[in-house]
Amino acid sequence: SKELESEVLKHFPKPKVATIYRGVDLEEFGFVPKDVANQELKFLYLGGLSARKGNPFGMNLKGGITLLKAWKSFIDQNAGTGYTYSLQFGGPDVTQEKVENILGDSIAKYNIQLPGYLDKFSISKHMADATVVVVPSMAEGLPNVAMEAAATGCIVVGTKVGGIPEVVEDRETGYLFDAGDENSLTQVFNEISRNLDKLPQMTAKSRKRMESLFDSKSFAENYLKAYNTNG
Questions:
Q1: What topology is assigned to 24-216 in CATH?
Q2: Are 111 and 137 in contact (CB under 8 A)?
């Protein structure tokens, strides 16, 4: 990612450095136009609730706790609007008990489903069905989930950390917010729900960005080009 490139430049002034994106298989994650005319918005999160050893964020490393709190506020604020909002909350170490302890209420009340840990085939199917994919990480590299979601035609909502801003152009191809800021995330959800007419244009632009910068077929060619230029 560009963030990693900038870190290298801090420690090794003027080295020959190039950022090469591994990218995503654009055939496996093909573009699926989203139908929002039925007044249903489907949100997807796949980061889980793992508390990896040595990380300062505990179960919120991938932002799952931030998301659940923001989601609760969003649903409370939009009760009775006539729209249906659902959240597929997946990933490692997710249990109903953990989620309901964070919510302080039942998952049914907030229309949350727990698909568990998904394999690659299941991920592409869930993304094809989703409208919005949330990547609320507290710390991150260049997450595959963000690239795959953008390629599929989902609106990606992510934090301003790691390589996420390289995938998402704020309010052009998706939405960015400050990591850990549940209120800002709630505001983003509200903005999406009130501007559904913008989604087709945003997702089409996002797909074109993936084709231009993040096509896995270009990885070897770009690697060779960087080698010949900097070698």
A1: Rossmann fold (3.40.50)
A2: no
